[in-house]
Each structure stands twice: as C-alpha cells, then as structure tokens.
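Why does residue order matter? Because the sequence determines the fold. Keep that principle in mind as you read this record.
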Amino acid sequence: MSIELWAVRLERPLTAEEAETMTALLPPERRERLLRVRQEERRKEPLCAYFILRQALEEQYGWRELPKIALTNRGKPYFPEYPEVQFNLSHTVGAVLVGLSDEPLGVDIEHIRPVSQRAMRRLADVDTREDFFRSWVRREARAKRSGDGVGTMLREETPLRYGEVYYEIETFPGYAAGVASGSAEKSGTVRRLVLGGASEEET
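Structure:
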C-alpha cells in the first residue's frame, strides 16, 4: 500500500454541533484525554485529526469506528488489534495532516510562525523561518516514525539511515509538511480539504 495522506486547513472554529459529533466518534480514552484540554479552541485541531483519521480508515478499509489505540513504551500510537495498519497524525494551528500506510511512517505539519534568530541558529543553523520549519518538520516526522521521541529533535540532526526516506509535501500556503517512511514510493494521493471553504483537491 502506498502512503495515503489527508491534509485539512481549518479556516473557522468548529460549531458546537460539529465538535459534539467529532467528540462522540472518538474512542473513550482519546475522548477523556481531549476533554482535559480546558480551552475549547485548542481542541479543534486534535478533534479534526482523529475525525479525519476515522474518515480515512473508512475510505481505505470500510471501518466505521476507530479501533482501540495504544501507545508504545516511547509514546508512538498504534492499533494493537490491527498491527498491519500504520498511521500517524499531526496538527498545528489551523491545519491537520493524517497518514496511512502498511509500514511505519511519521508525518508532521507546522504553521510557519515567528522564531527568534537565536533559536533558528541554535536548533537548525539556518537564517529564515521557512528553513527552520522545514528542518523542524523533517526532524519531527523522522522521530515520530522511529518512535525515538521528541528529545532526539533537539540534538543535531543525523543523516538518513539505511532504508529511511523523507520527503516534503505541499499542503497550504504558510505551512511546512513532510513524511518519513521506509519506502522510496512516495504518497499515492494527497487529499487537501478546507473547513470553511469549498475547495477540495487531490494530487
């Protein structure tokens, strides 16, 4: 199976009905975790991430519900009842990225926002926000695929390992996004959707 990707731009807040519908679709443990987020506005992106994951699983496998999600000892989420189905989620201010495959993958999307010159130099040795977030996305996607944890992102980035592949994807203006996998085959489809607009496209 090629890597299938869904990217969603959130251009407006969720309505109360949308938030209620999305929350009801979550597995109990995910729902409880999300409801501990006190600011409702901060629930929008993670809610949409799991909603899109559920829609993606229905489209690809005909599943009508999210199966149980567990975490490895390093915090990587997986389906214990369906180890052959691999997924990864990412959300940032105003956008969500979901990936499905039959092998481990990591995805990340970041809103390009102001960063101090000191941080850009210290963490990535670059001079522009665009380059900084391209580096950050690459590090996070790789860390999420391997399950090595966020701590590895703060060290100097290592070269790609044997069998490790990383590539950038185009999502929306003002965002950086990428995918880490173990296959030279890039994503088969990137579905781009906009909540609050009428656009939808695939590449």
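The CA atoms of residues 21 and 51 lie 9 Å apart.
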